Amino acid sequence: MKRFTKEENSWMYYDWANSAYSIIISTAVFPLFFKAAATNAGISPSDSTAYLGYTIAIATFILAMLSPILGTIADYKGLKKRFFTFFFALGLISTASLAFIPSDQWLLLLIFYTLTAIGSSGSNVFYDAFITDVTTEDRMNRVSSRGFGLGYIGSTIPFLISIAIIVLAQNEVLPISTTIASKIAFLITAIWWGIFTIPMLKNVYQKYGIEREQKPLINSFKRLGKTMKEIRKYRALFLFLLAYFFYIDGVGTIITMSTAYGSDLGISSTNLLIILFVTQVVAAPFAILYGRLAERFTGKKMLYVGIGVYIIVCIYAYFLETTMDFWILAMLVATSQGGIQALSRAYFAKLVPKENSNEFFGFYNIFGKFASIMGPLLIAVTAQVTGNSASAVFSLVVLFIIGITILMFVPEPKVDSSHTISA
Questions:
Q1: Nearest alpha-carbon partner for 28 in 332, 245, 258, 297
Q2: pLDDT at position 112, please?
Q3: Which residues of the chain have pLDDT under 70?
Q4: pLDDT on residue 416
Q5: What pLDDT is attached to residue 421?
Q6: Which of 350, 283, 258 shows the shortest CA–CA distance to 145?
Q7: CA-CA distance, 278 to 405, in Å (whole number)?
Q8: What 3 state SS string does the chain have?
Q9: What is the rounded distance in angstroms from the CA atom of residue 411 to the CA atom of residue 242?
Q10: Entry pTM
Q11: The domain made up of 6-203+221-407 is a member of CATH 1.20.1250.20
């Protein structure tokens, strides 16, 4: 395989930049910070887990409703980068703002967390769609997987710095409170995210799109309506979206709710942060490995493998009792979480018309985001009704089984390597 081009590398480094948000804000530090703030306010652990689940559901619902509309408008030449930049800026500013919100204002924390989630996920809609602009179909598995691999590697650096500051503060080595240490982690995330997004802003451009026309907003809604009516005509694409809807729900829920679940099991914050750090380290080579194995065995077969691992994860999660159990669970997740997301992105990119990539990635996002509503809501409702989230985690296995069953009917995309990319 030829060396990666400047456009490919610049695109992949946004995974490196944005993954700091994913691990520190979405998965590790903020959920623990919020649960501590909620506990201090007299909220029970199960209720605080539920409130976090509801917040994730609200944020994903908002973005799911916006994504197809914004994606359709962004298919006009020259607009993709503008939309990407707007959502990136929203996420960056909101993340930095978390550091300045009083820790006793738990509701305000959730509001700004919602804004960070909309900014991060919104920028990813357009970032994912840019894959059709930066590489060719025969290189998509490798490029997408390497992007996720870089993301895991890159996220470990600010995460390790943040863990060190928090642990040193907890052990009174640093003369600051754990609250201040967590807020420093939020600022580190924003700085890292901003600096390493510069290559993406500088070197990646929209190559495919439709020509601008009069009344672009009205015409965008017309095109969106037409696509919604005709999407079943794209049989392979429609079936893949349906399969993706189910299996990615379980993936996203396990990622976003893992620390809250671990905390409810009684695992200490320090142990959770260390486990998540090691998970990122282990996930990096496995994400790249999935891309290489997909070139040998096809992306679809490797998706089967990834979904199969997650089914095992859901079953094992039901029986968790000790910190060692959580370690085993985390390592299982690490083997497949990056690979399944990377290959899903590449698989879908091969199915979509390039000039309408934003519009179709808007549907990709809406299916993913609406799926992400189900999982957290299931966790939230079950946690409140039963006082035990283990049963809800176990129930996610049904979603993976449905997803893999539908995926069996999706044909392999035809790979086109006829067009070239700039060096």
A1: 258
A2: 93
A3: 1-2, 213, 215-217, 220-221, 223-224, 227-232, 255-261, 358-359, 366, 368-373, 375-376, 378-380, 382-384, 386-392, 414-423
A4: 54
A5: 37
A6: 283
A7: 32
A8: CCCCCHHHHHHHHHHHHHHHHHHHHHHCHHHHHHHHHHHHCCCCHHHHHHHHHHHHHHHHHHHHHHHHHHHHHHCECCCHHHHHHHHHHHHHHHHHHHHHCCCCCHHHHHHHHHHHHHHHHHHHHHHHHCHHHHCCHHHHHHHHHHHHHHHHHHHHHHHHHHHHHHHHHHCCCCCCCHHHHHHHHHHHHHHHHHHCCHHHHHHCCCCCCECCCCCHHHHHHHHHHHHHHHHHHCHHHHHHHHHHHHHHHHHHHHHHHHHHHHHHCCCCHHHHHHHHHHHHHHHHHHHHHHHHHHHHHCHHHHHHHHHHHHHHHHHHHCCCCCHHHHHHHHHHHHHHHHHHHHHHHHHHHHHCCHHHHHHHHHHHHHHHHHHHHHHHHHHHHHHHHHCCCHHHHHHCHHHHHHHHHHHCCCCCCCCCCCCCCCC
A9: 13
A10: 0.75
A11: yes
Residue type, position 260, single letter: A
